[in-house]
Write a structure and sequence with these properties.
Layout lengths: L10 E5 L13 H11 L3 E5 L3 H11 L7 E5 L1 E3 L2 E3 L4 E3 H8 L7 E5 L8 H11 L3 E5 L5 H15 L5 H19 L1 E5 L3
Parallel strand pairs: 1-2, 1-3, 3-7, 7-8
Antiparallel strand pairs: 4-5, 5-6, 8-9
Length: 189
C-alpha cells in the first residue's frame, strides 16, 4: 500500500447550524480538533448560516495556493445544501467557487446531496476543477456519518493517489460506506 506519511492537506470547514438548540449544539468542530491534535492537520472552521456568510467565507479562501479539503457541513437534500432559511443548489456552489478551488477535494457533509444524476456531478467537477468530490447519496445516521467522516479526513492525509485511497478504503470500510451511502467522484470517474 503506497502511502505518503507527510502529505497533509489543510481543511477549510464551512458549517451551518444543525438545530436551533444553541446549548447542546452539534458540530464538526470536535472532529477537526481531533485531526489537528492527532496528525497536525491545519483546520479552519467557519460558521455559514446565510447565503451571504457562505459566499463570504468561500471568497476568503479562493485561490489559496496550497490545495486542501473543503468541508461543507450542512443539512442536505439531493443536489442541494440547506442553510438556516435558504438552500443552495450545487450549480450555485460551482458559480461561487469558480475555478479558485481547482485541485482541491470537496467533502459534502450533507445527507443525500449526491443522490443526483451523474451528469450534474460531472458538470460540477468540470466547472470547478475539483480533483475529488465526496458526499452522501442517502440520509445517513449521524453517528455512522461522523465516524466515516473522521476516518475519511484522516486517511485523505495519507494518500497522494486518490484512486488508491478509495480502493483501499472500500476494502476496509465497505459496511460503513453502505450504511452511510458515501460516494466519491473524481475527474472522469
Amino acid at each position: 500500500m503506497k502511502r505518503s506519511k507527510n502529505y497533509c492537506k489543510p481543511i477549510l470547514a464551512l458549517e451551518g447550524a444543525w438545530t436551533s438548540d444553541l446549548v447542546n449544539r452539534l458540530s464538526v468542530s470536535p472532529i477537526l480538533d481531533m485531526l489537528g491534535k492527532f496528525d497536525g492537520t491545519a483546520c479552519v472552521h467557519l460558521p455559514s448560516n446565510t447565503p451571504e456568510e457562505f459566499s463570504f467565507n468561500l471568497d476568503i479562501y479562493k485561490g489559496v495556493k496550497e490545495k486542501g479539503i473543503l468541508l461543507l457541513s450542512f443539512h442536505g437534500r439531493p443536489g442541494c445544501l440547506r442553510l438556516m432559511s435558504s438552500e443552495i443548489e450545487i450549480e450555485q456552489i460551482a458559480q461561487l467557487m469558480g475555478r479558485k478551488f481547482k485541485g482541491w477535494i470537496l467533502y459534502l457533509d450533507s445527507c443525500s446531496v449526491l443522490c443526483i444524476e451523474k451528469e450534474r456531478i460531472d458538470t460540477f467537477i468540470q466547472n470547478t476543477g475539483l480533483s475529488l468530490v465526496i458526499g452522501y447519496t442517502q440520509n445517513s445516521p449521524w453517528i455512522e456519518a461522523t465516524a466515516i467522516q473522521l476516518i475519511v479526513l484522516n486517511r485523505l492525509q495519507k494518500y497522494r493517489n486518490m484512486g488508491t485511497f478509495w480502493r483501499n478504503f472500500q476494502k476496509v470500510f465497505r459496511d460503513l460506506i453502505e450504511v452511510t451511502g458515501l460516494a466519491i467522484y473524481s475527474n472522469g470517474h
